[in-house]
Design goal:
Layout (H helix, E strand, L loop, with lengths): L2 H13 L11 H14 L6 H4 L1
């Protein structure tokens, strides 16, 4: 089975009984968690513009 066929089969199976994705964290929580990574890697990201 090719990778594409496997992915297609997975999607078909999952879509038979779909469940909505429910966010458990706010955007601010996620960005706050990423802030140390940005600082460590000297990434210039303005969190206000990301959400």
């Amino acid at each position: 089975m090719s990778l594409v066929s496997a992915i297609d089969e997975y999607i078909e199976t999952v879509n038979e009984n779909p469940k909505p994705f429910v966010w458990t964290k706010t955007a601010d929580n996620i960005l706050d968690k990423l802030a140390p990574l940005y600082a460590k890697n000297d990434i210039k990201a303005n969190c206000e513009t990301l959400h």
